[in-house]
């Protein structure tokens, strides 16, 4: 039956032969003749043969049941459409019966072939049958639907193809039934046919827009006035229009929403001003312009589109409808911007703006959560742009329905207390999604606004606490948190950013950010979650945890500022802290009045003590912030602009003025005044090119210089301050000789007393680096060789040609004397200066290498780590410069534990281990010369493994590992001895640290030899493998087991590369003799 019906349909849609087109007839006439011939051929086929007998009987049955069928129609095209509709109904009814029978009797599974596919449903059509069905549907829509659409409703046939004009001419509108009735009949039959899923696909995939246009016209087109009630213009009944409305809304609800939205956009027609558009390109494509739709249809499509938008997943459907099929590029960006504007604008059909945004804003946030790469990128563009427009145009609704849900997890982290443990903590997925969404909207979208920055400022402390937590752990949220924090600091107003930084440092009270009793904990997927904090009963531990947490927060803040390399914010914040420090120094000058506590109540006394403690806490927090900033940030970032340098000098001079008013003269205050005046003199002497703006900024120094010139006790300082004030006031026109002279003395003194790279312990001494590296103007008159401010760092490491040889020799002698000074910082700095002299090849230092060797060895016994580490570094540099002489002396000291030269005396165990550290650094510095100088070292290290002290044995093994991994093939003759030593220590030594060191030596040797392992250690490899396996199986020390596992992994990688070498695609060219 299905085959017969499909054959009948194929007869109706038989194409016109080319011979009929070439008879000189018009296209319209040829079309009518072809339709008439196909109708006649169908009737003859059904009445003549038995093949179509069943189809004929079913057709007659359907014809009798169809009340709309008109047997006396005078329009040939409508007769053709009626036959097609009847055959489609026959096919739909027959397939429906087959499907019902198929569903009533389920197919029994075949036990012989359980993997066989289930039987196909009977309504499945072949490819050829689907092609025939598609042709019939195209005829039905073209002849029975489109010609009866009102102008502007849908896409006219003339805009689709040239053949469409011929079709419109072949249709007769002056005969019964009317056009509205024909349109209703065709639409109803197509909807009835599409009730079967197998027939709905070809109907809706190609003709959905035409069916929607027909239903819109039938249901919503205004009725014509009664005076124009001609036969051809009679409308539909109220019931019929109601049925069409219901059918339209049912169709819109069950079809894929992006397709529905595309078709509604097409039905809305072209713009009023005649801009171009197209059917496929209404979402995107090129073609002829769409005609303007009538006003009732535009209003209807707007209402329907608003309904689609405000329903669940409506925003996603709108975005998909417009962006699906785009491949990126400029047009993609423009479309994303257009969609965002549509989403951000409240439609006129909406009940209220509040209702609209309450439904749309959550869906906009959902656009950020897609995983597909291309889809996620497009949806993210739309979401970020829509969020920005909403925040800008409707801030009150954006704050309530967009930003509040967006930042809700971070708000929940800070709100409430931990007293009620029943409160829900913030889960990991919530925090992760929140951080990712904020990153996409703020950092990727990069459209700062006041409302958005204000909302972020409310949760900034929580976000910063989360960032500090991620810095202590491995978390994928670290980078996102850091970028969000930097974005907020960069785009906020400078005063707000500085206030925010002070609050994070704890200078404005409690930092907050996480509610009391809760803390961030690692999540199972690399994120973070908010959990209840375990109470610490020990007060000392709780205090230590609090203090260390505050210090860690300040360190994280400094690391955050370090990333702002192109911003002035770190320098301005540093100057703000210096101003606060000056205010603290001024407060200390005020003598606290004695308070009579006897007359206070307990509450008043408690408040008084808490106030004093809070003030001390603020001062400590300020000093801590300054200290960490001076240690963590380079001076080029703290003082990157001349105005900041001037601000720094002003803060120093202000502190000096406070000291003058107080009448004290401490070394720190004297050094502060000396540094400030020296920096001013250096700037004014020509070390840096000063502009008129720089001189204008330096006018802030005039009151302080005037106060110093009047109140300082030294006449020289008074005169110098007066001269500097005159130079600044005249913008350099008047420059006394004392200014360049002071600048030269200041630079020379600092270059001799403080080596490059060393900073003083006091807080203001950190920014001395610029003054150290400014050259001496008195030695040159050429302005072209005057160093600039940007050359401060490099100039500090270049030897100054202005310093004479005698002066350099004097400096070396002073360093030797200071290396024996009792003051620890002085001694350590002198040792590092001598080390630098050896590294730089200073002739005076190289001539006195024996003195330096003795000096470094003696300082090894010093108890302060700053001193003996400087001595270790100096000995390592000496051994690298003179390996043959120095290494022999060090080996003797290490092997015997006593001094080599006279007088003989025993070294302590700690000193012997420090010599071992020197030898290890020397081994690392040997490089390719290790096989040459390593022979005597190996003997000493192997003998050291038999020492009675376990620390010496472990030190010898550590040095042995560092040396052996650099010997390469030179290790071959010593492989047996090395293997026996290591395996014996692993099996017999009782000390865990010695066994650890022995196993670690094997790992270092394997790592150093790499692919050469099988050649160098081929004879002992199996012994080493068995020793490592024995450690893994039976050694009680967990650390030794871990080292053995790492060594086995190294060995496994080596053997895999040896057995399965990497395949290389290469060509070998061989020259034949």
UniProtKB/TrEMBL annotation:
<feature type="domain" description="TANGO6 N-terminal">
    <location>
        <begin position="3"/>
        <end position="308"/>
    </location>
</feature>
<dbReference type="InterPro" id="IPR039600">
    <property type="entry name" value="TANGO6/Rtp1"/>
</dbReference>
<dbReference type="InterPro" id="IPR019414">
    <property type="entry name" value="Rtp1_C2"/>
</dbReference>
<feature type="region of interest" description="Disordered">
    <location>
        <begin position="736"/>
        <end position="797"/>
    </location>
</feature>
<feature type="domain" description="TANGO6 HEAT repeat">
    <location>
        <begin position="309"/>
        <end position="567"/>
    </location>
</feature>
<dbReference type="Pfam" id="PF10363">
    <property type="entry name" value="RTP1_C1"/>
</dbReference>
<dbReference type="Pfam" id="PF25267">
    <property type="entry name" value="TANGO6_N"/>
</dbReference>
<dbReference type="InterPro" id="IPR016024">
    <property type="entry name" value="ARM-type_fold"/>
</dbReference>
<dbReference type="InterPro" id="IPR057347">
    <property type="entry name" value="TANGO6_N"/>
</dbReference>
<dbReference type="InterPro" id="IPR019451">
    <property type="entry name" value="Rtp1_C1"/>
</dbReference>
<feature type="domain" description="RNA polymerase II assembly factor Rtp1 C-terminal">
    <location>
        <begin position="1021"/>
        <end position="1053"/>
    </location>
</feature>
<dbReference type="Pfam" id="PF10304">
    <property type="entry name" value="RTP1_C2"/>
</dbReference>
<comment type="similarity">
    <text>Belongs to the Tango6 family.</text>
</comment>
<dbReference type="GO" id="GO:0009306">
    <property type="term" value="P:protein secretion"/>
</dbReference>
<feature type="domain" description="RNA polymerase II assembly factor Rtp1 C-terminal">
    <location>
        <begin position="812"/>
        <end position="929"/>
    </location>
</feature>
<dbReference type="InterPro" id="IPR057407">
    <property type="entry name" value="HEAT_TANGO6"/>
</dbReference>
<dbReference type="Pfam" id="PF23565">
    <property type="entry name" value="ARM_TANGO6"/>
</dbReference>
<dbReference type="InterPro" id="IPR011989">
    <property type="entry name" value="ARM-like"/>
</dbReference>
<feature type="compositionally biased region" description="Polar residues">
    <location>
        <begin position="744"/>
        <end position="775"/>
    </location>
</feature>
<protein>
    <recommendedName>
        <fullName>Transport and golgi organization 6 homolog</fullName>
    </recommendedName>
</protein>
């Amino acid at each position: 039956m299905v085959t017969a019906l499909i054959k009948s349909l194929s007869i109706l849609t038989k194409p016109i032969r080319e011979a009929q087109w070439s008879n000189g007839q018009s296209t319209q006439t040829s079309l009518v003749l072809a339709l008439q011939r196909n109708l006649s051929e169908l009737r003859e086929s059904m009445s003549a043969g038995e093949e179509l007998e069943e189809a004929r009987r079913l057709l007659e049955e359907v014809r009798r049941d169809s009340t709309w069928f008109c047997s006396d129609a005078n329009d040939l095209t409508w007769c053709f459409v009626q036959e097609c509709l009847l055959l489609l109904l026959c096919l739909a009814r027959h397939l429906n019966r087959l499907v019902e029978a198929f569903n009533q009797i389920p197919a029994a599974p075949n036990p012989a072939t359980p993997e066989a596919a289930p039987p196909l449903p009977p309504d499945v059509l072949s490819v050829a049958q689907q092609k025939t069905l598609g042709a019939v549907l195209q005829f039905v829509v073209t002849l029975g639907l489109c010609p009866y659409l009102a102008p502007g409703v849908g896409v006219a046939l003339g805009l689709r193809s040239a053949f469409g004009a011929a079709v419109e001419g072949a249709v007769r509108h002056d005969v019964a039934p009317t056009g509205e009735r024909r349109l209703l009949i065709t639409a109803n039959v197509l909807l009835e046919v599409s009730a079967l899923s197998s027939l709905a696909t070809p109907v809706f995939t190609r003709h959905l827009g035409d069916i929607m246009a027909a239903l819109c016209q039938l249901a919503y087109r205004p009725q014509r006035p009664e005076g124009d009630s001609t036969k051809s213009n009679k409308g539909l009944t109220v019931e019929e229009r109601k049925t069409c409305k219901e059918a339209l809304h049912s169709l819109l609800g069950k079809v894929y929403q992006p397709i529905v939205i595309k078709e509604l956009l097409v039905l809305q027609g072209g713009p009023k001003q005649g801009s171009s558009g197209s059917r496929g390109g209404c979402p995107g494509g090129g073609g002829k312009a769409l005609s303007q739709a009538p006003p009732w249809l535009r209003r209807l499509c707007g209402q329907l589109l608003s309904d689609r938008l405000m329903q669940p997943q409506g925003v996603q459907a709108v975005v998909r409808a417009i962006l699906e099929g785009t491949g990126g590029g400029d047009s993609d960006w423009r479309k994303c911007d257009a969609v965002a504007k549509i989403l951000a604008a409240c439609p006129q059909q909406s009940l209220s703006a509040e209702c609209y945004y309450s439904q749309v804003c959550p869906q906009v946030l959902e656009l950020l959560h897609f995983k597909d790469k291309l889809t996620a990128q497009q949806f993210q563009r739309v979401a970020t742009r829509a969020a920005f427009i909403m925040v800008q145009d409707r801030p009150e609704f954006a704050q309530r329905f967009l930003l509040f849900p967006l930042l809700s997890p971070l708000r929940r982290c800070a709100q409430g207390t931990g007293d009620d443990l029943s409160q829900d903590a913030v889960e990991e997925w919530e925090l992760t999604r929140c951080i990712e969404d904020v990153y996409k909207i703020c950092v990727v979208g990069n459209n700062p606004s006041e409302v958005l920055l204000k909302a972020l400022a409310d949760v900034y402390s929580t976000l910063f606490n989360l960032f500090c937590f991620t810095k202590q752990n491995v978390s994928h949220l670290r980078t996102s948190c850091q970028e969000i924090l930097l974005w907020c600091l960069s785009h906020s107003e400078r005063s707000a950013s500085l206030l925010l930084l002070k609050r994070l440092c704890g200078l404005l009270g409690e930092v907050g950010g996480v509610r009391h009793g809760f803390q961030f904990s690692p999540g199972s997927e690399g994120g973070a979650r908010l959990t209840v904090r375990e109470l610490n009963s020990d007060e000392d531990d709780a205090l230590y945890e609090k203090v260390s947490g505050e210090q860690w927060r300040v360190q994280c803040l400094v690391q955050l500022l370090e990333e702002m390399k192109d911003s002035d914010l770190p320098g301005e914040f540093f100057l703000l802290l210096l101003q606060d420090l000056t205010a603290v120094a001024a407060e200390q000058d005020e003598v606290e009045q004695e308070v009579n506590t006897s007359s206070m109540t307990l509450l008043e006394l408690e408040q008084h003590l808490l106030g004093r403690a809070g003030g001390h806490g603020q001062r400590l927090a300020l000093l801590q912030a300054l200290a960490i900033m001076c240690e963590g940030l380079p001076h080029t970032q703290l003082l990157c602009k001349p105005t900041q340098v001037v601000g720094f000098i002003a803060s120093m001079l202000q502190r000096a003025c406070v000291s003058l008013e107080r009448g004290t003269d401490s070394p720190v205050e004297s050094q502060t005044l000396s540094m400030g005046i020296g920096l001013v003199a250096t700037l004014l002497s020509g070390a840096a090119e000063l502009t008129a703006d720089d001189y204008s900024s330096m006018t802030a120094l005039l009151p302080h210089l005037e106060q110093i010139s009047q109140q300082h006790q030294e006449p020289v300082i008074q005169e110098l301050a007066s001269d500097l004030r005159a130079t600044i006031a005249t913008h350099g026109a008047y420059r006394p000789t004392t200014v360049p002279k002071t600048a030269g003395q200041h630079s020379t003194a600092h270059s001799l007393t403080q080596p490059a790279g060393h900073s003083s312990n006091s807080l203001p001494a950190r920014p001395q680096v610029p003054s150290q590296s400014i050259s001496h103007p008195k030695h040159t008159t050429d302005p072209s060789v005057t160093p600039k401010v940007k050359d401060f760092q490099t100039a500090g490491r270049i030897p100054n040609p202005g310093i004479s040889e005698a002066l350099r020799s004097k400096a070396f002698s002073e360093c030797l004397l200071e290396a024996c000074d009792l003051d620890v910082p002085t001694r350590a700095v002198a040792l590092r200066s001598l080390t630098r002299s050896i590294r730089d090849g200073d002739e005076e230092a190289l001539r006195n290498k024996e003195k330096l060797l003795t000096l470094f060895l003696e300082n090894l016994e010093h108890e302060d780590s700053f001193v003996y580490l400087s001595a270790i570094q100096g000995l390592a540099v000496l051994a690298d410069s003179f390996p043959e002489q120095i290494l022999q002396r060090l080996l003797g000291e290490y092997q015997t534990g006593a001094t080599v030269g006279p007088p003989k005396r025993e070294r302590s165990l700690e000193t012997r281990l420090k010599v071992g550290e020197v030898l290890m650094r020397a081994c690392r510095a040997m490089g390719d010369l290790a096989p040459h100088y390593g022979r005597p070292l190996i003997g000493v290290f192997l003998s050291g493994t038999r020492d009675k002290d376990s620390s010496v044995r472990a030190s010898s093994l550590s040095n042995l590992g560092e040396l052996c991994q650099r010997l390469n093939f030179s290790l071959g003759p010593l492989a047996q001895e090395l293997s026996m030593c290591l395996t014996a220590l692993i099996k017999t030594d009782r000390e865990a640290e010695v066994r650890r060191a022995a196993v670690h030596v094997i790992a270092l040797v394997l790592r150093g030899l790499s692919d050469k392992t099988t050649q160098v250690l081929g004879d002992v490899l199996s012994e080493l493998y068995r020793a490592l396996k024995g450690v893994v199986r039976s050694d009680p020390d967990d650390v030794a087991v871990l080292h053995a596992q790492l060594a086995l992994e190294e060995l496994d990688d080596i053997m895999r590369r040896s057995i399965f070498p990497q395949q290389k695609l290469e060509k070998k060219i061989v020259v034949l003799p």
